[in-house]
Amino acid sequence: MSMSFDQYMRDMVQPMRDELTSIGIQELRTPEEVEANLPGDKGTALVVINSVCGCAAGQARPGVAKALQNDVTPDHLFTVFAGQDKEATAKAREYFAPYPPSSPSIALMKDGELVHFIERHQVENRSAEEIAEDLTGAFERFCR
Predict the structure, then answer these.
(1) 55, 56, 106, 109: which is the annotated catalytic residue?
(2) Which pLDDT does position 85 carry in this prediction?
(3) In this predicted model, what pLDDT tens digit does every residue of 27-59 receive, in sequence order?
(4) How far is CA 57 from its chain centroid?
């Protein structure tokens, strides 16, 4: 029995997608979906650049989930999946200048402008709790 590589990857990453969508984060899978949701959104938007790496599993996704338990949260919640939805991820990253591409990473936008960004190197060396604290601080500052 053989399975295509694409099918294998879809099956392998689905639980990683579900970890964010199950807590109310909307996946943006195409550049058109990114364009329709990010640039002009009024209010605040959290954008998680998801990844298959260990720091996404151990720190980024759990940190985001914990942060979203805060009383103050962004108006909109989005995710793109690096390495899987490549074109959507590339389009989302256009809004994160001057930061270079990194995954996982987490962006907070207000009225279409980037106001807070957590790069991969800031995920790798911190716990999920520290990432949640960072995010909740940004939520308190920008999402009121």
Answers:
(1) 55
(2) 96
(3) 999 999 999 998 776 899 999 999 999 999 999
(4) 12
Can you tell me whether residue 70 is helix, strand or coil? coil
Between strands 26-27 and 105-110, the pairing is: unpaired
Q: Most distant CA pair in the chain: distance in Å?
A: 54
Structure tokens at 48: 């998680």
Place of tokens 């995954």: 103
Could you give the CA distance from residue 49 to residue 142 in angstroms, rounded to a whole number? 20
- All residues at 6 or more sequence positions from 139 whose CB lies less than 8 Å from its CB, including other chains: 44, 67, 70, 72, 73, 74, 108
Residue 41 has a CB neighbour count (10 Å cut-off) of 17
Burial (CB < 10 A; 0-12, 13-18, 19+), residue 46, is buried
Closest CA to 104 of 51, 57, 34, 25: 51
Is 34 within 8 Å of 86 (Cβ atoms)?
no
Cβ neighbors of 124 (< 8 A, separation 6 or more) are 55, 59
Is 143 marked active-site?
no
Model confidence, pTM: 0.95
Please identify which of the residues 53, 64, 68, 108 carries the catalytic annotation. 53
